[in-house]
Design brief:
Blueprint: H1 3-16, E1 28-39, E2 43-46, E3 50-55, E4 58-68, E5 74-92, E6 102-118, E7 124-141, E8 144-162, E9 167-185, E10 194-212, E11 234-239, H2 249-264, E12 270-274, H3 282-302, E13 310-314, E14 335-340
Parallel strand pairs: 12-13
Antiparallel strand pairs: 1-4, 1-10, 2-3, 2-10, 3-5, 4-5, 5-6, 6-7, 7-8, 8-9, 9-10, 11-14, 12-14
Helix pairs in contact: 2-3
Length: 341
C-alpha cells in the first residue's frame, strides 16, 4: 500500500469522526507509555534474490507527549516507538532457506493527530487518528547489517478507559507503513554485498497509560438571590371632625381605596384602630376612638370587605400622632388607621 493511500485512508477516518461529542473533552498536556505486540507481514528483498522474508511476532514500546486542545476532542502528540522482530525464514530464487539469524529493529518518530469521542458511558471512549514521521529501520543477517531513515505514516484506532481525571488506560492498534527501505547487505550465497529494497509495514497492538490533563474548570458559583422582604402591611389613614365619629367625604374616598386594595390584594385581615385628641376625659375619648374604628369598619363592609376579616380597637388619646398637652384640639390626632395584612 502506497504512502498516499495510507495517509488518505487515515485522514478520512479521522475526519469522519469529527462530529460534536460534548462530555469527553480533555484539556492540557499529557504523557503516555505503552507496551506492544508487533507483527510484520512477509516481505521481499528486491534485487537480492530473497523472494520472501518471514518474521516472527515481536515486541515494542512507545512513548508519547501530547496536548489535548481545549473545547475540542482533538489531541496532537509526538510519538517515539521501538519495535523488534526476528527474521525466521527466507526463500530465495533457488529455494535456499530457512535462514534464521536475522533481526529487524525500528525506531519511529511520529507526529499524530487523534480524535477522541465517548461511548454511552462517561468513562469509555474510542479514538482514531493518523500520523506522519520518520522510521529508522535496521535489518541484520549475522554480522551484516544496514539501516536507513524513511518517510512513514500510520493509522491509529483505540479504546480508552478514563480511570480518573488525570489517568487514562488505553488499548491501541497502529498500522505503520514505511516507504521502501534501501539497504546494502551480505546475502547468503552472494559473493558481494547486494543493494536491495524492502517493502515494510507493521501491525502493532499496545496497551498503556496516559497521565496529565488539566483539572476541569470550577463550576460557576451558585448565586442565591436574597429572599424577598416580607410584604409590608399597607396603611390608610382617615380623619374625623372634632368630637365626631361619622365618615366624611374625604374619609370615604380613602376607605374606597382601602377596600379596593384589600379585595384585589387578597388581604387576610384588616385592622382598624381609632384615636382622639386630648380634649375630654380619657374614658370619653376611649369610647370615641372605638366609635371611629367601628364607623370605618361599617364603611368597608358596605364596600364589599368581609366582616369577619376586620378587627377594630380604640386607643383613645394614648397614641397621639402629634404630641400636645391636655385639652388641645389637634386635627391629626382625630383619626383612624386601616392596616391591610
Amino acid at each position: 500500500m502506497g504512502f498516499r493511500k495510507v495517509l488518505m485512508a487515515a485522514s478520512a477516518l479521522v475526519l469522519a469522526t469529527g462530529v460534536a461529542n460534548a462530555g469527553y473533552e480533555r484539556d492540557g498536556w499529557y504523557v503516555g507509555v505503552e507496551g506492544a505486540w508487533v507483527s510484520v507481514p512477509d516481505t521481499e528483498l528486491i534485487g537480492s534474490g530473497i523472494t520472501e522474508l518471514e518474521f516472527d511476532s515481536g515486541w515494542g514500546a512507545l512513548g508519547t507527549v501530547g496536548y489535548a486542545l481545549s473545547n475540542s476532542n482533538w489531541r496532537i502528540e509526538g510519538e517515539v516507538g521501538y519495535r523488534m522482530n526476528d527474521a525466521v525464514a527466507a526463500t530465495t530464487l533457488i529455494g535456499f532457506g530457512p535462514y534464521t539469524n536475522g533481526e529487524l529493529t525500528e525506531w519511529s518518530y511520529m507526529i499524530n493527530a487523534v480524535y477522541d469521542f465517548k461511548f454511552s458511558s462517561e468513562r469509555f471512549g474510542f479514538s482514531v487518528g493518523a500520523g506522519v514521521g520518520l522510521d529508522d529501520a535496521r535489518l541484520q543477517f549475522d554480522e551484516s547489517k544496514d539501516r536507513n531513515y524513511n518517510l512513514a505514516a500510520q493509522g491509529i484506532a483505540g479504546i480508552t478507559y478514563r480511570v480518573s481525571q488525570h489517568w487514562d488506560l488505553a488499548l491501541n492498534y497502529r498500522y505503520l507503513w514505511v516507504d521502501e527501505v534501501d539497504l546494502v547487505l551480505s546475502i547468503p550465497l552472494a559473493p558481494v554485498e547486494v543493494e536491495t529494497e524492502m517493502e515494510l509495514s507493521k501491525h502493532t497492538i499496545s496497551i498503556g497509560l496516559r497521565y496529565g490533563y488539566n483539572d476541569p474548570p470550577a463550576p460557576p458559583p451558585v448565586v442565591v438571590p436574597p429572599p424577598l422582604p416580607p410584604a409590608q402591611p399597607k396603611q390608610f389613614i382617615i380623619f374625623f371632625g372634632f368630637n365626631k365619629c361619622n365618615i366624611t367625604a374625604e374619609a370615604d374616598a380613602v376607605l374606597s381605596e382601602a377596600a379596593s386594595a384589600a379585595k384585589s390584594g387578597g388581604s387576610a385581615s384588616v385592622r382598624i384602630v381609632g384615636h382622639t385628641d386630648t380634649v375630654g376625659s380619657p374614658s370619653y375619648n376611649q369610647k370615641l376612638s372605638e366609635c371611629r374604628a367601628n364607623a370605618a369598619k361599617a364603611n368597608l363592609v358596605g364596600k364589599g370587605v368581609s366582616d369577619g376579616s376586620i378587627s377594630t380597637s380604640g386607643k383613645g388619646e394614648s397614641e397621639l400622632m402629634v404630641q400636645t398637652g391636655d385639652s388641645v384640639k389637634e386635627p391629626q390626632n382625630r383619626r383612624a388607621t386601616v392596616d391591610l395584612n
